[in-house]
Design a protein that fits this description.
Number of helices of chain A: 11
Shape of chain A: globular
Radius of gyration of chain A: 20 Å
Strand order of the largest sheet of chain A: 2-10-9-8-5-3-4
Helix content of chain A: 25-40%
Oligomer: homodimer
Largest sheet of chain A: 7 strands, mixed
Chain lengths: 361, 361
């Protein structure tokens, strides 16, 4: 079992028992059974409902970094223009990846405790005229939600660019409408709101994006073009992960049966509670404005006079695990992950109680 | 449960219950727990024993195609020379991949029912002087084992080439000595002899290969260079699959506790039984010479007067699932997979009994 009694790590989250049990069956070969291809199709359909999209869904085996790389590699050729809209680590990550891959990569950067200014972004889109624009919905290290995806999506299409969005730690827990926001490629991981292990990656891909993908003709494990006719052709580019697909099915059914709106509500309530308890105990919220603090993860400054190491140790001794941070936020900001199975008021309360105890010593 | 009573598909194989149970625990976050990094290190050590190597082991999340691609991309730059030694589909696959990736890709091809002629291969190595040479240990579609890896490995190093070997469906079930064969990059999947789901890929990488990898500076999900200091730096390039790693640990411990030699014996006996029962019922072995018929998978010609579809349907109605085929072997050859959990005389006997019944009607 996990080493900590109270898990509030912002992904991978605690995997509920009903999902873990998916792995108890011996499924047979995903390469040859109609049952598997039907399961894949069912998951595509459920995901479309989750994301409010008619776009084709591609579900692949591997952690979400595979589709962050794959989305860029499948749509850009060397020297093609990439505009990475960023108010945090993952947004800037796209720019770094683009550079490493030899694309003409431009960063539209905003402060990590802020969100992108849509007018500035639109100006940059109009002047740079990128082929692909990346943005992040929930910057997990910053604990922020970018509310301007729709505006950016519109601007993207006005210049004929593809709009690629990382919603790895928001989809299912935060309001998100892929078609309304005109998201061409949407990127989702299994270990956040969906509460699976990190084994699957889910992408929504528009027709416009498929055209570019076919044209780009990228080849590799993370190439999207091999997935266009899955599962219709009863074929996958490699042996798929049947139990993980079953687990995904259970998770999606669970969310949709409870009502997506209820799931969003469960997240926003847990987040509100987290922020209010944080305020009570004197924690300082990292996002500049509570309005864009994420329903799935709350980022606080590490309390004064504490190092991250000492703070984390004190929490761990008392059975609480929270998220640290990376890059320029390392040692400065920590995070409470209340997403998926962890979007639970009781859990948040118990976790914040421990923090209060530690700070009052 | 799987739809077929008798599973003799040559990967993914039936996952034994003691391995499936690994997923029943809720492990916590693989990003932050020492326990995970210790598990990773333990699996590296067990894998070194399985493969008879001192080389560093890299274990990644995703199906084995990820490391077939990753091995090429991590070591070759456009126009670099790749020699693909092939006596089957996967061997030729490397040449195709190399072409797609813009390498100077040459195929050293041999018949699919045969094995590479080492003298011809050495000649081609000496004249072409490739940077990387690929070979396949067990060509699963052909049911053959290439017994000449050691000779090819030596020749590779005489010209300063890297030797990359796909032993996805042989390692653990067939005699294989990575260091003795001078294999620089060895590629292994989790869904064959190891009898896990298809979620993990395992690579053995020599110091010589690490130098080339660092120099090539490839970036992507399947890039090896990020893994050089895993788990020493207590970091992974993405969130790893803890339950799958636990399952791998259980499988490796099981094989090594029973004795690797005993595992090899169990496979060769199941294979011998399969071939002899096949002979009895009039099946024609596909490999030209029984000497190089694989201990992990036996390929037979589809019996005369049968199409693959009709034959397979007749078997499936009676509860038996076997492997079909691909490319030029599709409709011509079928396969009995007796690897890992399926390297079992009783299982093979029952399967062949059903084939006998079908052929005698």
């Amino acid at each position: 079992m996990q080493n900590y009694k109270i898990g509030l790590v912002p992904g991978p989250v605690s995997v509920p028992e009903f999902i873990r049990k998916a792995w108890l069956e011996d499924y047979g070969s995903a390469d040859i059974e109609d049952e598997f291809f039907n399961l894949y199709a069912a998951n595509q359909s459920l995901t479309q409902k989750l994301l409010h999209t008619k776009n084709k869904i591609v579900i692949t085996s591997g952690e979400a970094m595979s589709i962050l790389w794959g989305a860029l590699k499948s749509t850009l050729k060397p020297n093609d223009k990439l505009l990475a809209v960023a108010s945090g680590l993952f947004g800037e990550g796209f720019a770094w990846m683009g550079e490493k891959l030899g694309f003409n990569s431009k960063l539209s950067a905003f402060d990590y405790d802020d969100i992108p200014d849509p007018e500035k972004v639109i100006d940059e889109i109009k002047s740079f005229k990128p082929k692909v624009i990346t943005a992040v919905h929930c910057e997990t290290p910053s604990g922020t939600i970018n509310p301007h995806l729709k505006i950016i999506g519109r601007a993207a299409h006005e210049v004929g660019a593809l709009f690629v969005v990382d919603f790895v730690s928001s989809a299912g827990g935060v309001e998100l409408n892929v078609d309304d926001y005109e998201i061409d490629i949407g990127l989702l991981g299994s270990q956040k709101v969906l509460s699976l292990t990190s084994s699957l990656s889910i992408s929504s891909i528009s027709d416009r994006a498929w055209d570019v993908i076919k044209n780009t003709d990228y080849n590799g494990y993370d190439a999207y073009n091999y997935w266009y006719e899955v599962p219709e052709k009863k074929y996958t580019p490699y042996t798929h992960d049947w139990p993980a697909m079953k687990a995904l099915n259970l998770s999606l059914e669970n969310i949709l049966n409870n009502g997506l709106e209820n799931n969003l509500k469960r997240h926003s309530e847990a987040a509100k509670l987290c922020r209010s308890l944080g305020r009570e105990i004197g924690l300082k919220l990292f996002p500049k404005d509570e309005k864009f603090s994420s329903p799935t993860v709350t980022a606080f400054y590490i309390p004064e006079n504490w190092t991250w190491e000492n703070f984390n140790n004190a929490l761990r001794i008392r059975g609480l695990a929270v998220g640290g941070n990376y890059g320029k936020l390392a040692g400065k900001v920590f995070r409470i992950g209340h997403m998926g199975s962890q979007a639970n008021n009781e859990l948040v309360k118990n976790g914040m109680e421990i923090i209060k105890e530690v700070l009052n010593k």
